[in-house]
Amino acid sequence: MPRNPLVMIVDENVPFRQELQAMLAAAKLAVVADCGYGVEAASLAEETRPDVVLVAIAEPHLRAIQTIEAIRGLVPETPIIAYAANLDFRVVRQAMHAGVRDLLPLPLKRDELLHALQQVLVAPVARGDDAPSEEAARPASAGVVLTVFGAKGGIGKTTIATNIAVAIARQAHSSVLVIDLDTRFGDVAIMYDLEPQVTVAQLAAQVRTLDRATFRAALQRHHSGVWVLPSPKHPSDWRTVEPDDIRELVRFAARLFDYVILDTPGAFNDIVGTALEVATQVLLVTSVDMASIKDTAFVLDLLESEGFPRERVYLTVNHANGANAIRADDVSRVLRTPVFWEVPHDDAVVAASQLGKPVVLAKPKAKASRSLVGLATKLSGAPEPAVKRRGLLRRLVPASAP
Ligand SMILES: Nc1ncnc2c1ncn2[C@@H]1O[C@H](COP(=O)(O)OP(=O)(O)OP(=O)(O)O)[C@@H](O)[C@H]1O
Ligand SMILES: [Mg+2]
Q: What is the per-residue pLDDT for 148?
């Protein structure tokens, strides 16, 4: 006897997912997975192999389209049906290009939905022009793993990691998890004013048997939307943590989150080695004093000797323009590496961190905040935040100007 078709639902609206699930159950269709947008949707589709995927196209539309492309990239043979309220023509076109087989209006009518499902479940899989583009076919089962590292303590690694996490989550509408791998005195939780509950050491110990629900339940959520996995309270709690388990844990996390940001101590050990090894990108932080630059030169050589591609190392100068500052050009020349970004010295950073608030939220207009948001934009490829034109500028440059 043929089995009932398996359906996966991708929708950020959890109550609606449940409603839809009930509607499908009444028609004897089993829902094998349901989740929101992002890399998790693609990895879940690959794992659960549904017969059809239902995707909401809701705001932000781009994120819905990217999710459809990612699913098509990993399971190109699985038909996708999208549903949406009021769509403009451009979005409909994008959805079709992304490989959607049918597009239904909201509110969903039971008969219409069942008819659409029937159609795609019996129709052969379209090929040729309907196949995903090469870009869309790029495997996307894992998110970006961004390791924030620097050879010295106190140069702003945690400040940068926690602030760009907030900025990426907000601008790029991405799911972001910060894992505190500072094996000395991790302070990601302090920076977010959170009381640590389950720590990275505890999750690493059970990584071999970990499931998604347990993992998610262990994480803490900052009000900005960023998810946090804090480090253990005492450095001695790291003694039992195996680097292999950390590697597994980060890979597990990267299948659920679009961005996994790893904060590290200003020292070398085997956990830091693992954090660098699993990174898709390394944000190498240096401050503008000779000792920090000398140590950064050492790290660059080390990464090179380990075969880590130079183009994935983003050299970031913190405290630029501070007292006794060496210019970014000089840093770049001495290290023979282009400076990817400069974060200015700004007292607003210290004031915000003392309140347990990322400066990008506490003082969004401060020069360090604007710089950190710019860094997040460059890293995530999110569209530039809209600039409010005021006064003379608005009169000179109309809002509709390209
Ligand atoms: N751009 C900046 N302007 C002013 N102060 C800054 C800036 N960046 C960081 N700071 C301050 O410097 C101090 C150290 O920053 P942070 O804790 O982020 O460094 P770290 O590299 O993570 O240190 P550790 O190695 O000890 O973990 C904090 O008080 C922070 O507020
Ligand atoms: Mg730190």
A: 97
Element holding 283 (H helix, E strand): strand 281-287
What confidence score (pLDDT) does residue 311 get? 86
- Given a cut of 50, the residues of the chain with pLDDT beneath it are 1, 124-140, 387-402
Do 264 and 352 sit in the same domain of this protein?
A: yes
What pLDDT score was predicted for residue 306? 82
Written as six digits, the tokens of 123 are 């129709």
Determine the structural domain holding residue 117 and report its residue range.
Answer: 6-137
Which among 43, 68, 49, 70 is positioned nearest to 251, based on CA atoms?
A: 43
33: CATH? 3.40.50.2300
Judge whether 385 lies within some domain: no
**223 shares its domain with 350:** yes
Q: What is the pLDDT of residue 249?
A: 96
Q: How many CB atoms lie within 10 A of CB 357?
A: 18
Determine the residue of 349, 355, 360 to mutate for testing ligand 1's pocket, defined as the one with the most ligand atoms within 8 A of the Cβ atom: 349
As for how many domains the chain has, the answer is 2
Length of the chain: 402
Give the pairing type, strands 80-84 and 227-229.
unpaired
**Which pLDDT value is given to residue 263?**
98
State the distance from the centre of ligand 2 to the C-alpha of 116, rounded, in angstroms.
52
Compute the distance from residue 157 Cα to the ligand 1 centre, in Å: 7
